[in-house]
Amino acid sequence: MTRTKKTRTKKTGAMTRGGRAVVIGALGLASVTLAAAPAFAKGTMDITAPRTVHVGKTLTVKAHGDDDSAGFLHQLCLEENGFGQGWHQETCSPAVEGEAQVTAHGTSARRGDLKFRAVLYGLTSRHDPKPVRLHTSDVVTVHVR
User: Fold this and answer.
1) Which residues pair with 103 in a beta bridge?
2) Helix H segments across the chain?
3) N or C: which end of the chain has fewer CB within 10 A?
4) Mean predicted confidence (pLDDT) in 7-21
5) d(CA 1, CA 121)
6) CB under 8 Å to 107, separation ≥6 — which residues?
7) pLDDT per residue over 122-136, tens digit each?
8) The overall pTM is greater than 0.85
9) Are β-strands 43-48 and 88-92 bridged in parallel, bridged antiparallel, or unpaired?
């Protein structure tokens, strides 16, 4: 009977040591995975436009955005979608360090809805041929009457 207890104790002890090794290995793997995972930068985006404008009257859309990603200049562009044309760029700010701002003025010659959004790009230099899209704002709709 003593022999059986010893065998059971040895098996339990071996299983415990093996279990500990598995847990330690899993924790080590998790810490390496977390260290290698990319960090997500925080950014802010804000876009303002009037809710309604009359045909032929001046429409002003303003946006500003920032991102805390290091090593990037920022450029902010306003995009418009209206009258079945799809999204296209209206105007862009110059490349700046820190917060980028852009303002667009225009008029609409016909009635309908115009949608606007701001897109913040990260650039490695002022003439970067491949800017990285960092953030896109919510869409604002302007009703043209």
Assistant:
1) 62
2) 2-36
3) N
4) 55
5) 75
6) 56, 57, 58, 59
7) 999 999 999 999 999
8) no
9) unpaired
CA dihedral (108, 114, 117, 118) in degrees, to 10, reads: 0
Q: Using one digit for the tens of pLDDT, what is the confidence trace for 54-81?
A: 999 999 999 999 998 767 899 999 999 9
The number of residues making up the chain comes to 145
The amino acid that residue 53 corresponds to is: V
Q: How far apart are CA 46 and CA 38, in angstroms?
A: 25
Q: Which amino acid is at 117?
A: R
Return the number of other C-beta atoms located less than 10 Å from residue 48's C-beta. Answer: 13
Q: Residue 72: its pLDDT value, please?
A: 87
* Residues ≥6 apart with Cβ < 8 Å to 104: 60, 61, 62, 78, 90, 91
Question: CA nearest 76: which of 49, 97, 51, 105?
Answer: 97
**R_g over Cα of the chain:** 28
CA 100/CA 72 separation, integer angstroms: 12
